[in-house]
Design goal:
The chain is mainly α and 100 residues long. The chain contains 2 helices and no strands. The radius of gyration is 23 Å and the shape is elongated.
């Protein structure tokens, strides 16, 4: 007579592999957001310094250069960002069979 209960098999996905996947995802997200955030930070600091030196407190003076700078940063680093994301996704899909 065969048993209807599945045999106990150790799962291939361990706590360490889940943590490794989470760390990889966080590293990729930091790498992808860094060019945009650094550009906005530098432009914001320069504009803020200019505003404090000239006593001009205008919202658009800070907003418009940031938008233009972030757009330029996306144009320059967009190709690299796309390749990084595609490589991570391909490696993630390739590792799925070994986890099952």
């Amino acid at each position: 007579m065969t048993s209807l209960v599945a045999p106990l098999v150790a799962p291939l996905i361990t706590d360490g592999s889940i943590i490794e996947l989470a760390v990889q995802a966080m590293v990729v997200s930091v790498k992808l957001s860094a060019p945009i955030l650094v550009t906005a930070l530098v432009i914001g600091f320069v504009i803020s310094l200019f505003q404090s030196m000239t006593q001009i407190q205008e919202f658009t003076l800070a907003f418009v250069p940031k938008v233009i700078g972030v757009g330029i940063a996306l144009l320059i680093s967009g190709n690299w960002m796309l390749h990084t994301l595609v490589n991570y996704t391909e490696s993630l899909w390739a590792s799925i069979p070994s986890m099952l």
